[in-house]
Amino acid sequence: MAAAVLFSISAPAVNFVPLPNDVKYGEGTFLLKKGLAIKGGNKFNVNYLTERLDRVFEFSTAATAGEAAIVFDTDSSLGDEAYTLEVGENGVIIRSSSRSGEFYAIQTLLQMLPPDVYREVSGADGMQLKEWNLPYIKISDSPRFAYRGSMFDVSRTFFDKDFILRHLDMMAYHKLNKFHWHLTDDNGWRIEIKRYPKLTEVGAWRGKNEALPPAYNSGPDSYGGYYTQKEIKEIVAYAAERNIEIIPEIDLPGHSKAIAVSYPEILCNHDEFIQSVQGEVGNVFCVGNEANYKMLDNIFKEVAELFPTQYIHIGGDEVATANWKVCPACQNLMKKLGYTDEKQLMNYFVERMEKIAAKHGKKIAGWHDIVVGDLSRDNLVVAWKSRNATDAIQKGFPTVMQPAEYCYFDMKHTKAERGHTWAGLVSVEKAYSFDPLSTFNLTEEQKKLVVGPAGGLWTEMLFFPPHFADYQLYPRMCAIAEVGWTEQSLRKYEEFDCRLKESHFARLWNMGLKFRIPMPEIAAARNASGEWSVYAEAPYDNMVVRYTCDGTSPDCSSPVVKGRITAKDPRNLRFATFFNDVKSIDAEVPGCHTYLTPATSVTTSFEYSSRASVENLEKYDFSKYMRTTNLPKAGDFVLFTFEEPLKCNKITVQTNDPVNNFFGITEGHVEVNYSDGTTVNAGNFDMYNRVTVEPVCKEVKSVKIVVDGTCEEKQVSIQCLKIE
Ligand code: TNX
Fold it and tell me: Is the CB of 408 inside a 6 Å radius of any atom of ligand 1?
């Protein structure tokens, strides 16, 4: 590790994540063993450490009162969150001036132990270590930024209390200290407000028979949920013990569909609702209706009582302000205030919310969109694009740096993976490359306003596959944790990647996370006799590649690739990287499919966009697709008719768009009509919005996509047939 001064080869370097800011190894090791005692320390911290030590040692450290091996001491010269940790011949000495410094020293110490300390098992099922060598070390550490955040959207997809507690644990392991909890949005209101019960009775549920439509791909069932105030108190207390401040977000005045379906009187009084950028209609508060401020005051009262933080985040993003142009109440207000542009009403709203928050003892935080008008510079801005980051700072606001281009974990890692793309691809390396102080051009004075980085996870696409939140968060969140904690001069991606490989993936695995690992690299060549030689290489030398030959997804029992595989037909080979039971997405042999392109005419009952019309489906250009402009309803169809009867082996019918995989058919099936006059139902669309027809034993005349249910998607995208 270049960051650490290593002066003894007998002491193995520890693969810390995030890397502490000053690490010096000494010569020798201290043996942690039975009889160990802990002296001093905050009660919660000591219990926390003991509980994790118990997971690897065969004895309870707390019960024995032998010689002190871990001593906690105070050093009032150290700042908040700072600590020193020394291992020498007398054991471990941790010094700090605060509970938080002590807590972070414990996190550092845990990383010096076997990764099993993160596993929630002990006793017979746990590790049974008798002793463990700690390298002599001197660490003097404190964070680079005071704000090291994780922003998490629980509106689009609901995550229950246990998931949130686990998320807070993961944040603590990574020395992250601010949890920005996106509790409300168009797609779900997740916090119990006693005064307005319909917010959660109506606004917390999505589904076909609910006021809020289902999520992309979620199918017809209702689902959702919310946190009771009792649960929120428990979560807030759990976070505080782990040095995490929770900043709740109530997203206003846009992104408010969940509240609008519960209390429609919050909307402007007109029938010409204008869509938000995300295509939502009826999701903006009326700013001219005084009753709305009374309601928000009541809501903020309850929110303020639940969260000890100094901030309530009021959202403020992506407001379709054009709704205010056609509303009599908003127009009256504009006249009264002498405004000429309805956008000025945004300033008005934000300033009203600032006053309401102040009444309950809070400042406001908001997305960069609140940087309007005469807002107090005491409030906190969360910048979500690179260009807003500099703007907020130039205007003098303390700013959390969460630019989507580096910090949005809902973006795809690589082209082949699921996710959004509007801010580009966000690889682990891209996230790691972010430096809140030097990525943008800021003066020394302006840099003082940077409070720190945050990684954000939006959850429109998190409904499936299982554990996709883990996949999107880790290890990108580990990268952002290091961005927040470690001095820039010590950060090198190659070394971070090496620490991930050498130790941190094993820690994440022990934490029970289904984190993302890269898929294998596949190379293939065809010899003169037409046989294929396929090589598959794991991205890291401590991972393996497993494969199947029948087109199914490899699992832990699939054989490991050793050397080269030969195959006559490589089209059904599937490969995946494995780290224990954590697996990558599947890989295929590149370039082994040749698709047939028979002359086809396509007709449909849908209305479609002129830019993505039905004719695209006749061209077999797989980057193009058809996009409908109306909601699918039962009986809607797309009919592919082949000019000549078609001989083939397999037809893949894929709906949704090829870039983001949004807007697929969830309720529908495919009918195949053969030249002998028979018609066969080839099956229903699966989670991936796909039907595969295989084998195809007879000549095909036509293939028909048939919608069976309303889907409730705003639109549907259909891709060209893949015929083999
Ligand atoms: C933009 S960034 C949003 C969210 C979406 C996200 C998807 C911001 C303040 N708003 O509502 O979920 O993009 O990436």
Answer: yes
Q: Is the CB of 318 inside a 6 Å radius of any atom of ligand 1?
A: yes
Written as one letter, the residue type at 469 is A
Which of 317, 370, 660 to mutate for ligand 1's pocket (most ligand atoms within 8 Å of CB)?
A: 317
pLDDT range class, residue 297, cuts 50, 70, 90? very high
Peptide bond preceding 12 in cis form (omega within 30 of 0): no
Confidence of residue 65 (pLDDT cuts 50, 70, 90): low
Question: Ligand 1 center to residue 458 CA distance, Å?
Answer: 7
Does this model's pTM top 0.90? My answer is yes
Range 7-13, long-range pairs (CB < 8 A, 24+ positions): 8/136, 11/135, 11/136, 11/137, 12/135, 13/135
Strands 380-383 vs 399-401: parallel, antiparallel or unpaired:
parallel
Q: How many CA atoms lie within 13 A of 560 on its CB side?
A: 8
- How many angstroms is it from 99 CA to the middle of ligand 1? 35
What confidence score (pLDDT) does residue 563 get?
Answer: 83
- For residue 104, the Cα-to-chain-centroid distance in whole angstroms is 24
Regarding the beta carbon of 460 and ligand 1, being less than 6 Å apart is answered: yes
Distance 277 CA to ligand 1 centre (A): 10
**Extended strands (E) in 90-183:** 91-96, 131-141, 149-153, 178-182
Residue 559 alpha carbon to ligand 1 centre in Å? 41
For residue 689, which of 221, 344, 216 has the smallest C-alpha distance? 216
Q: What is the pLDDT of residues 451-492, one digit of tens each?
A: 999 999 999 989 888 899 999 999 999 999 999 999 999 999
